[in-house]
Amino acid sequence: MIDKQAVDEKLNLVSGRMMVLKNNGMKEKYPISLIDINCWEWPQGVGLFGLYKYYEVSGREEILDFLVDWYDKRLEEGILERNVNTTSPMLTLTYLYEKTGNYKYLAFIQDWADWIMKDKKLIRTGDGCFQHMITGDPNEDEILIDTLFMTVLFLARAGKLLKRRDYMEEAGYQILSHIKYLLNKKEGLFYHGFNFKRRDNYGGILWGRGNCWYTIVIMELIGEIELDGGLKRYFLNVYENQVKALKRYADPEKGLWHTVINDTSSYIELSASAAFLYGIMKGVRLGILNWEEFGELIEKAMESLMDYIEEDGTVSNVSYGTPIGMDEDFYKTIPRCPMTYGQALMILVLQEALQPYWS
User: What is the pLDDT of residue 32?
Assistant: First the structure.
């Protein structure tokens, strides 16, 4: 079964590495660094979420102190631009407010949620879907599966805190709409994006990390807000079909996943693999999935994951930020380097492995 001492040691290394992550010379193509932990962007948002989850399991006050210090400094500096991706750090702020009771955090949460809903500054495209606007680029007519984690989960959490049922209902609507346009019904997996002007899914690629955002969001959402029974059942049906497809496509030797899920010639990608394993393990723990069907995969994947954690805690084989590509070769050429979300998604699965259920 799971060696919890080994997991805890790796978890300390991975989280410690993430809290000091810097760009060591890689030329980045975005206005805000996706690598440096002290920037306000989506990779850092994922990283902070992973850290908070680790704090919940460990109770380590130095992690909470890091998070409070990080947010206080970023809020003092000011946010360069509001968009889908820069909404990502707002998710962990909702948890930090609940923990600290700092009303400065709540005021900022309300202001940002109102920016999305009341002011409608977050661009809508076809069917009222959130357009995947990013820093410096509105991505006209485009939706991405990534939006579910970057913005929609925050909106659901904010609605809960602010007692705004309409905000929570909008989150549900966005998930339904993204399923409608991005789900490959034959495979049970998601395309990376959809373009409303061209009415297509670009190259129709089943990209690993894109898919993992759905796996995580649904597992988090069902524990956060009270969903209508039919809606919850629908979301979980999509989730179950997805993870069964993931089981089919898991690398037979390692139990991990390729960056293009159904292309074994593409490289094993660790941010997606860690996230998929987290979502599958949590599904088993909650009784949504059964151990008999997924136990062997979990054990194999957990063992393989450890091989991708370097001595200093760096998670290797993580692909850099990835726009939509028109063919599989595009995804195969995305460079691999240490990323905060790679660290964070590894933290998610390692802290899941420390849950009492897995003893």
Answer: 74
**Token pair belonging to 180:** 């409608």
pLDDT at 35: 80
For the chain, the straight-line distance linking the first and the last C-alpha, in angstroms and rounded, comes to 8
Q: What size, in residues, is the chain?
A: 359
> CA–CA separation, 251 vs 280, rounded Å?
15
At residue 312, the pLDDT reads: 96
CATH number at residue 111: 1.50.10.10
Distance CA 27, CA 35 (A): 11
Task: Name beta bridge partners: 134.
Answer: 137
Q: Which helix (H) or strand (E) holds 221?
A: helix 208-224
For the chain, which residues score pLDDT lower than 50?
none
Domain count of the chain? 1
DSSP 145: T
- For residues 117 and 111, give the distance between their C-alpha atoms in angstroms, rounded to a whole number: 10
- pLDDT at res. 1: 67
358 in any annotated domain: no
Alpha helices in 35-102 (DSSP H): 42-58, 61-77, 88-100
